Each structure stands twice: as structure tokens, then as C-alpha cells.
## 1
Amino acid sequence: MGHVMTSVSATILEAEFAAQASVIPRPVRTEPAPVRWALITIALSFLSLFIVLPLISVFQQAFSRGWEVYVAALVEPDAWHAIQLTLTASAISLVLNVAFGLVAAWSIAKFEFRGKGFLLTLIDLPFSVSPVVVGLVFVLLFGAQGFFGYWFIDNGYKIIFALPGIVLATVFVTFPFVARELIPLMQEQGTAEEEAAITLGASGWQTFLKVTLPNIKWALLYGVLLCNARAMGEFGAVSVVSGHIRGETNTMPLHVEILYNEYQFAAAFAVASLLALLALVTLILKSILEYRLAEDHKR
Amino acid sequence: MKIDVNAVSKTFGTFRALDNINLNIKSGELISLLGPSGSGKTSLLRIIAGLEWPDSGDIRFDGEDALSLTVKERDVGFVFQHYALFRHLTVADNIAFGLRVRPRKVRKPEFAIRQKVEELLNLVQIASLADRYPSQLSGGQRQRVALARALAIEPRVLLLDEPFGALDAKVRKDLRRWLRGLHNELHVTSILVTHDQEEALEVSDRVVVMGHGKIEQVGTPSDVYDSPASAFVHDFIGESVALPITVENGVARVGERKLSINADGISGAARLFVRPHDIEIAQPGLSAIEGQVLAVRRFGPIHRVDISVPVDGGRTTIEASVPAGQEPKIGETLGLIPERYRVFAA
């Protein structure tokens, strides 16, 4: 809050200073116009080349053989199953990661304990480990020859090449998102409001629902959004643990790859266009949430 | 409500925040915990509130063991230095918070809560701000909201942790006088933590001076100002001049010269404490303490005079107050007579 105010007053000061310093107000710029235009052009062309063009081509390819082929590719049983599986796996991992993210952020931001720095590093681990390695680790742990594999298989639970394995891999890859969004915000907000609520007679649960949650709701949603986008799009880790069984353990990204390898380009791009659409929706929601977060921050 | 603090100690790691604190707070009084930062005053307040636990000792509310009660059960109103208002709630909802979180059985009906909020808004004189959010208020207004919110639950004791610390000088002066007026109306037992002696001396019935986790003195504002119990209190409260002296067989000396002061019960190295306005300026030769004028500064109706005085092993600079118009010249030699003083062993 403080630094926002400072920067506002600084801007006012600068404006006043500028008005006094020169009779003709002139915006302060350091680079000459050609340099500015060159920089803007480079940035824009880079963006179009690497982001806008591919996005357009995904949709162009998806509809290249007409609307009917597009719809047929999506309602085809294996594709439909892949969509359902993706939605299920990401929904489960989302719930788990929101719970984990809240607990981790709460303990890091509001308590002092040994090993706090270590926990913070651990939370970032999925960002630095290749998803394929993650998949392999889960196969090692839960596969037929794995560490826990015997027990689960003996008791009739299938982890690898089944939904639980896919969920495990997705959870691992996406767990930093919610926690990472919440930690800095909760640290900044401190514990004073929670303490105030408790002295006013609120229970722990009431304090969480009526004080903590409203204060972090936009950041939480933001984390959920990023987490969801990543969960639905996860390829590497899921690819290793799923076993690519068509109509059973194929998620959308895996299904796209299979179709592509079978030269069914229109179908592959049709499924891919759903993922691209998800990315676009995410982008729009993200901008809205960022705006809300900034508004909240001004308070 | 009467509060008894018995033999309370608390350490944070190796830091001894509170060292065997004993304190009896009378029902209905406004008492200040005054001390520099790190003196343990806030820790003591938070232990009374139940936001922290002591390592040993006990706290009694009207004789009842308070440590066995949770924060919720203690019925304390706590006002935080940085207000801690709920930023997503309006002023009215902030004040109503404590009433709305009560269990359904003991909760007042909504119209009664609204009525109570209105009363409190009037009491703290911010009725027109009911629908604003905390971010739309000034610091002084925020602290009024925080106070109304704490009073809403009709607490048995009001705990104020540096409530005016984040406000500018003019506002804090107005607000503390207003708080004193409010206390005279409500008579709720109140504990005010502050590092601002002016604030403590002006509003409290009694002042508890704390330093290094210990209580240095408990007394009325006049007691602690006029009869400081220790060098720490003399130094901390009001302005002080400290002169190193030595006492042998009841005779005090400053440097080589004999000092005609009463130093009963003290032997060896000691310090003579005087308030600047209790130092009388005299002709040289009439007093044991003599010094050269180093600087003269004007402060409103008086002059502050820095005087360099020879003491054991060197010189020390002391500051005296002289009425305007009688100021000495720089370099002049003056005699100094301490009219009121205290001697503490060094």
C-alpha cells in the first residue's frame, strides 16, 4: 500500500517539476523516434511470429476439412474419452492443489518454523524438474516393479497406466501455482487481521472464511486458473505414467500426439484447438483477475 | 475488571523479553506500559490478551486463571498499532464483526446489531463514515473504527498497543485526549502500551515504566516524573542531565571539588541526575560545579545552554535551561547549582 502511494506522489512531483522546468510541456523521452519504432516493431513481430501465427494456424488446420470433420473428430469415442479424462484429472488435481496451496501458503506466511526456506525450495521443485523425470519417478515408485507397486497391485489398486497415476503426475507438476500465488500476498498481509478477528471472538474457521479467504480470493482464483491451464495441457509426465491406452488412459494432449502420428492432421488440430481455446480463455480471465488484484492492492 | 500479573517471564530464543513481572491493575483504571522498544511492554500486553503465552507465571482476571482461557473466552478488546481493520468490510461491518461471529444462541438479532453499531459510530464520532471502506479513511478515523470495533463486544478489558503510534503529532494529541474523555465515560479497565512518555503521562491514571523486560517503576504520572525510582526512569522520563560523581563517606565529589549534596546510602561511583530546568545558574566560585558555555540555543521562551564541566577523567557536557534575556555568552564560565536532584549508584 505504502509504495503505491509513494509512487503516486512521486509522479505528481515529477509532473509539477516538469511544468515548472520548461514553458512548453514536453514528454520526457530519451530515445529518438527511429529507435523507439524499431524496438516496438521487433517486439511485435516476435510476438506475431511465435504466438499469433501458430495460434491462427491451429484453428485454420482444425477447420481445414470443414466443420463436420471438426465436430466428428471431437465426438469420436476415443477423443471424447480423452476430453473427459483430462477434465476429471485436472478437476481432482485442482482440488488437491488448492488444499495443499492454502495449507503451504498459510504455514509459510503466518508461522515461523525451522526448514521454512527448504519448504519454499521444495515447492518450486516442479518448475525445475523435467516432467518426463517426474513421470519416471512415479513409474519407479508405483509400477509393477516399483517400491510401493507390489502392495497396491496385490490389493487390487492400479496406479500406473490408470487415472490415479495421471492425477499424481498432474498434481506434482502443478502444485507450485496456487502456493506461489498466495505466499507473497499472505506474507504481505501478515497476521494482524486474523489476530483482530480472534480477539473479537471468531473461531479459527470463521477467521479463515470471513477474514483470510476474502483477502486472498483473487490471488487464489488466479492460482487456480494457471494451475488448471497447466494441468489440462500437461504432456511429459502424464505421457510416461499413462501408457497411452486409447479410450482409457489417453488425455487430450496425448490424443493429439497419437492422431498426429497417424497423419490425421485435421482431427489432431481439432482436439488441439480445444486446448488452444482453453489457453485463450485463460488469458482473458487472467487479465480480468490481474485487474482485480491490482484494484485490491490499491486498498 | 481487576488484572493480576504474577511472576510472568517470557523468552524469545535467547532474548529475555519479560523477566519476572508482577503487576496489579485496578478495576476501571487506565494504566500505561511505557518503555523504549524491546522493553517487553508489547509482549506483556499480548500475553494478557492471550495472543502469546508466558513461559512461566500466571495472569488472573478478577482472581480467575486467565491462562486457561482462550483469546475468545477472555473478552478482551484489542486495538492494534496498524489498526488491523478488515479491508474487505465497510466501517459498519467492521464494527459489527465481533457481534456477528457469535454463536447463534447468544447472537443478537440483526436489528439490534445495527443499533449497537450506530451507537458506537456516534460514540467514536464517525457516524457519517459507516459505509466507507478502511482504505478510504485517514489514520485517525481508522483508529476510531478499530476502537469502536473493540468496544462492540463489550470487553472486560481494553488493550491498546501503541494505538496512536502511526499517526502524526497533531492527530495523536487530539485522539489521546479524546480517548481519556472516553475512558472517563466508560470506565472500562484499559491498558495502553506506548513508547511516548508525553502520551503516557497525559492520559494514564498510573504509569508502568519498563526497561529490559523488567518493571522499573509503577506510579502516578507525577510520581514517575518527580520521584523517579531508578536512573533508568530518570533518564527515560522527561529531560535529564547526568553528571558522574564519586561518593566517599557521605561526601560527594565532582572531579576534585566537594559537592554539597545529600548522597545518603550511596558509596563509590554514582550519577547525579538533574532536570535542565532545575539547574540554577550562579556566579563562578559559589558552586562546586563550574563549566564553560559551549553553545546557546533558543527554544521558545527559554534558552538551552550547553556547558562543559570537568569531571573524573575528562569533561562532560550538560544542558541547562535559562529564561530568555538572561542568556550567558559563549565561552563564559558559570557556576551551576542543582536545586532538585537525585543520586543513583552508577
Note: Chain B touches chain A through 27 residues (CB under 8 Å).
## 2
Amino acid sequence: MSHAATLPAPRRFVLPHRLRAWTRRSPLAAAGVLLLAAFALLAVLAPLIMPYDPVAADAAAVLQAPSQAHWFGTDANGMDVFSRVIFGTLYAFAIALPAVALAILVGVPVGLVTGYLGGWTDEVLMRFFDALRVFPSIILALAVVSAAGASVVNVVLVLGLLDAPVFARLVRSEVLALRSGSLVECAVATGNPVWRILLVHLMPNTLQGTLAQAAVRASWAVRLSTTFAFLGLGIQPPTPEWGAMIRQGAEYMVTGQWWIGVFPGIALILLSLALNMTGDGLADLLDPRRRSAG
Amino acid sequence: MRRALPFLLRRLVLLVPLLFVVALGTFVLLRLGGQDPSAMLAGPTATADEIARLRAQYGLDRPLPVQFLIWLGRVLNGDLGHSWISNRPVLAELVDRAPASLELLVLGVLIGALVGVPVGLISALRRGRGFDHAARLISLLGFSVPTYFLGLALLLIFFYVLEWAPPGMGRLSLMLDPPPRVTGSFLLDALFAGRWETAQSAAAQLVLPVASIAILCAAPIIAQTRAIALSVLSSPPIAYAEAQGLPPRTIARIALRNAATPVVTFIGAELVGLVGSGSLIEYVFAWGGTGQFGLDAIVKGDFAVVQGYVLLLAVFSVVVFLAVDLLVLVLEPRAGRA
Amino acid sequence: MSLLEVSDLHTHFVTRDRDDRIRTARALNGVGFTLQKGRILGLVGESGAGKSLTVTSILGLLHPPARVVAGRALFQGRDLLAMSASERSALRGNRIGFVVQSAKASLDPLARVGEQLVRVQRAHARRSRREAMERAEAILAAVSIPDPKRRLAAWPHEFSGGMAQRVVIALALVNEPDLLIADEPTTALDVTVQAQILDLLSAAVRGRGIGAIIVTHDLGVVAQYCDDVAVMFAGSVVEQGPVAEVFPRPMHPYTQALLAATPERLRLGAGLRLGGPPPNLYALPEGCCYRLRCDRSRDVCRSAPPLAQVGDQRAACHFAREPAEAEA
């Protein structure tokens, strides 16, 4: 395999070719990436796409069913559900992305150091993570956020810190596997300081696994972040956030105005699905056993 | 059984530090906001007198470690404080509602496992074919639906649109009285009492919430069972079984047997994780179990209940993990010696 | 009729690379050898030469992406490669016993040893559990496992590596096979245990008068235990014949180099001639596979080498009849 890798191939030709190969091998993942890109675009271009102001109440157009004027209908305040769903994408990204970034920023270094150095810090930390597992993460997150006050910053902090052990465990197990191998042995033998072994030799090897996990955890963070608002913690209803919209929509399902809650719900499922599919595909890509023609 | 007893004893000894950490974590939970804990415990309706009494009662004017020990002593005596919403002892409130939650959770996980495990196995055997891809997509969908929205969507479809299911308003039709309490499960109790109409209503109320939990837990069970089965199928013992010319059915049995331990362990972990989702499902269906009670307490800031609820969940998890360990001991000749 | 006659066996690995191009690794390229009843054949070669792949191909134990694309393997006159999977499965573990490389990893960890011995008997013959258990005990005794009655109830993890290997040999012999195939049976074991296992294995084969193939990379094992030898390089048998003829007078340059590299020869002052990587299986050189490493390579080696025969000894080389310079 090293033979093919050393051939000087023109990069702008090889890359799309690889992409096409990857698409064929895991179409689910490709669809996920595409969907994710569409959502990202939606978030960035939200102000241009939204036909209405997402928080402009219109007493003349309350609880209207989906129509030409309002694709997804209007809610109890006469706000345009379509515009609100699009704007909600921003909230989803704004909470999930920093939360996962925080989890990685805390978890990866912890995993690297404890995995490589071992000893009692490693032991204590792992026992602590084990102890954390006895609390269902949803309940723990909700309880902590409610105790600390349900601001957006707190939600991000709690989600990020609760999720850090996931990355710490992942990186630690990969480091443990590599530590006994020749890679580290050679690096030590050639006189590399510890920080260099960690950053230059070990970290790049854990990067792909971390990335695949990051997508899956972002999906979890998106779902959980909307749960806060759905329960009435933190972000409150007029705000165009998906969870808050579904909370409002749930009240109107009884009377038949299903569109208020269903459209943000579908958007939420799609974004969550896109992230999961992306993570699944990345994990697939890492598994060389899946690379046979069959 | 000869192996079980020393194993169990060793586990129980190991549990002590774990439970201590759990208690400490639960205690710290209350202090995260930096607010006055006595005010939080007493609730927004409390008078200054009540707060002062609570403060003395819990020793909240003492140094933190002392406070923790005082609290721990009370917890060990079964005193989890009072709910300011219902003004009843927290422990009694939680335990009264536990059967309703357990009924939902156990049925849901059972059905989820009964569907998920075979689907995962078939996926592994038909790897890369249509069934595998379909199962994978469905499992990914199950991963991606937020718990509470799944409950709402099922209600919308099967109650409002199709009118097949009863409304999501509790465990029994409002027209009926609950059966005399034996197990705490309305379905079982109604059957014991021979009240068929009540049993029917209880069963009908169970369908949607149980289905929600089954769907939620089937997704990861499918994915994990598939992965476990794939790794077992490519393991040396299976290759060796083929080299011995054992018939396909025998090989399948060997593979199943070798996949059992990791699958059981995973389902145990799922059961623990699902307690959170279960409480959201209870919330959506107004189930009135421990989960809904705990969630309400979290939302309304009934901190004595939140503390007790989190502690109860931790104890439940510990019991489940212990049960899984015992099960593994039965399944695995190698277990329990290390 | 030979016990086993393999001819022109080709096995390929078909995979896709990262650019989604189909790549074919030609792992076996026309392997052929013959085994007579009552003889032990040593299949030798360096890592990646295709020794183990040859036996797994014959037994029909390949999984994608590997597959047999051509060849014949006549076992007692019936072609193993042409029969159905279930017919082949009925022969495996029954008429053909198989000894794996890593016994401890390969035994079913969740079945007692007695149960595994009963299982393989009842898979191939109508036999009561009781009778099968009695045979199991007898065969454990036959492979020198002490206290066989009690060991029937033991779990695989309670055995040491050497004892587990004895169990695997018992499993291979319990149905009284006509052919025993051992795939590197001692690689995972301590040196002292290796000799015991090989003594046991050859005694069992000799005592029953059956045929056996021992896959190994150890020329010492071949010299000591085998009657015949087949030397493999890059998925082909380059030389074969009776050990008594091949070892003193190797015809193929690769065999010569291999024999020259044994510690005994090196101590005698013979120059080390072995070297270089095995050829790329994705792009095999045309003609003789060994020519890139061979010091006698000429232009003619670009064409397929003829089979030279002296007595029972055969070698695939253009210059096989020339005496090796190193020997002169």
C-alpha cells in the first residue's frame, strides 16, 4: 500500500476521485455530509433566506395552516414557522458546536496525558468517570443546569464538561494501544521529550477517531440542548429555538395545529441524523476491514 | 453459586467507595449554583422562619465537610428531606411512584431487546446486503430522534390522527379507578383483582410509552449487537469450528453463545442510560412515575426531591450493574476469578 | 492413487484501494504438490509465501476478499475444490483433521473440552453422547494428557499452551482421519514444548499410517519429522521431493539459499545469500518470480521456468540442472 501512496499524483485529480470512491462505499455518510452542509449553509444564510422576521408577531395571521404565504404555517403569535425553523438552526449550532469543542478541548488532553503517564492520577480519574456513569447523563445535565441556572453559557458548559469523559476514554484507549507499540518506543529512543511524543506522535493518531466521535456527540448535544427548552428550562417560547417551539407546538396538537411542533421536530431529527450519519461514515472510513470489494 | 458468593462480597466491598463518591456528587450538585441551599431546599414559598429551621436542622451554618457528614447521616437513615411542592417525605414520594416507572422501563427495554438483538444478528449475517443497510438506516434514525419528540410524534399519529391509541394522560382511563395496590403496576394489579376492563385500559395506556422506549433502546442495541456479532464471527473459535466441519447450526449456536456476554453487558448499560429517556417519556405521557416526578422537581426547583431522585437513580444503576455482573458470572466460565 | 494431489491452485485477494480501483493480489500462483498415504509432507517458505493460504484454500476455509480462482485438489480421488460446501464440511474434521496454530485462542472458550470433543464426533457420525464421551477420554489419554477423565470437564482457559495444543490434536484425531493438516502447530509454543508436540504429532501419524501436512517455516522441523518437502516462494512451489534428496542436493536457487541460511550451515562458513523483500503480489514479475532476488538470473528467466526433474525431486527453474556454484 505504501507503493501507491508514494506515487506523485496530481492532487486536484486524486481528491474528487477519492471522494467519489468514498461516496460509493458509504452512501449514507455522503448523504449525511451533504445534509450537514445544507444545514450549515442555512444557518449562515438565515437572514437572507427567512421570508419573515422570526419574532415578528402578526395578530392578523394567528395559527394559520401551511400555505403559499407561510410554508410551515404560523404559530399562536402569528409568527412564521418556516422563518423560525431556519433561525433555530443557528441556536442548534451555537450550543452544540461550542459544547463539543469544549468536550474535546478538555477530554483529549486528559486522555493523552493519563493514557501515556498512567499511575494513580489515571486510576483515580478513571474511577471518577466510572462513578459518573451511574448517573443517567440526561438527568445529570438537567439537574446541574437547573441548579446552576439555565443560561445558554451554562448549558454549553454542562454539556461540554459532561461529555469530556467520552473523549478522554476514547483517546486514552488509543494511546494505551499505541504506548506499547514501536511508534512510541522509537520516539522515546530517539530522545523526544514527553510533550513532543504526546503532541507530535500520539495526538495525530487519535485525531480521526476523535473526529468521528465529535460528530456523534454533536448530534447528542443538539438533541439534549433542545430538551432544556422543551421542559421550560432556560430559553423561553417566543425565542425561535426548536425545543421551545416544540413545547409550544405540543399544546396545540390537541386542537389540530400540528405544524407548530412538527416542522421544528423534523428539522431537529434531520440535523441530528446528518451528524450521526457523518460520524458513522467517518468511523467506517477508519475501519480498513470494510474496504473489501466483497 | 460457589463462585457467586465471594464474587458478590468482593463487589459489595468495592461499592462502598463508589457510593460515597455518588453521595458526594449528589451533595455537590446542590451547591453548584452558589445559592443559599436552605432557601433552595425550602422552596420559594417558605417563610424566613422555615428557612431558619431548615438551616439548623441540616447544620447549614457549619463548615462544608461537617454539613456533608450530617447530610450523609440523614440519608443513611432514609431521610431525604421533604418536598416543598407536596410537603411529603421525598423517599415516600419516590418509592410510591417507582413501580409505574419500572413497569414502563422494563417492558420497553424487554421489547427493544427482543427486536434489536435478532435484527442486529441478522444484519451481521447479511452484512452489506439490503437488510443490513435498512437496519442501519433505521437504527441511525432511532439514534437521531429526540426522546420527547418521539413521544409527541407517536401521540400525534396514533391518537390524534389514527385514533388507535388512548390520549397520553396517565396510566389509566380517567373513567376508571385504580385497582388495589399489590405490585404498583396497574396492569398486573388489575389482572390480580380480576378487573378486566381496568386491565385493558392499563394495557392500552402502556402501548405508546412502551413503544417509545422500545424504539429508543432498539437503535443502539441493533448497532451494538451487529458489531459484537461481526467480531465474534471473525474470531478464531468460529474459524476453528468451520475447520472442524461442524454443521452451520452448531456454529451459529457457538457464535450466539460467545456474543451473549457482551450483548447482556451492553443491554444493562442501556437500561441505566434509558432511565433518563424514560423520565422524558413519562413527562410527555403524564405517566406520574418517579421519572416525571423527578423531572418536574428539576424544572420547578424542588431541590430536596432532585437530590433524592438523583441519588435513587445512582443506586438503581449500581443495582443493575451488579445484576449484570452476576448474570455474566453465570454465562462466563472465565469470569469472577480475576 | 495419491492421498492428496494439488495442482495449479490459484488464490487471489480482490480488494479496492482508496481510489476505489480494484486491486488483485495474486497470493497463490499455480501451487501443486502430491502427498502419498503414510507420508508426512513439510510445506516450508518465508512469511507471506502462501503456506497457510494453501491449506485454507484446499479446505475451503477462505473468506472474502480471498477466493480460489482455479486449480484442483484431489483428496482420495475427489476434487475438494469442485464439491459443494456441505460435502467439504462433511470431510473437514472427519476425514481431514486440522491442527490450528494458536490452540488457546481457537478452542471455544465457552464449552468444556469434553463437550468440544463430543461435538466434533457427533457432527460427523451417529454416536451416543456416552460413547462419544468414552472416545473423548481415550483420545485425551492418547495425546498424553494426564488424568483425562477429569480434564474432560475442564475449560479451555484452564489449559497451558502446550496442553491446549494437545487438545487440538485430540480434536483432529478423534474421528480417525485419513489426512492430518497442521498449520504451524508449534509457532506459539516454548521451544521445549515444541519438540514434545511434534513428537506426539508424528507418532500419531506414523501409528495410524495416515498422511500429514505440516506447515512450518522451520527447516529443522522438516528435516527431523518430514518425509517430503515442498518449498514455497511467492505463492508457488519452487521445489519439492523427498527430504532425503532435496536437502543434500537442492536444485532451485531459492532452496539453496534457504538451506544455506540455516545456523548450522552458516557456522560451517557458507556465505549468506538470502536477501531482499518478497515480490509485490499486486504486480508479480513475469516469468520466474524469484528472478529479482536470484544471482543466476538471465534474460531467459523472463519466461516461465520449466519443471526440471531428477528422480522424485522437481524444481521450477531454468538452471535447475546446473550444480549450484556455492556448493562447488
Note: The two ends of chain A are 19 Å apart (CA to CA).
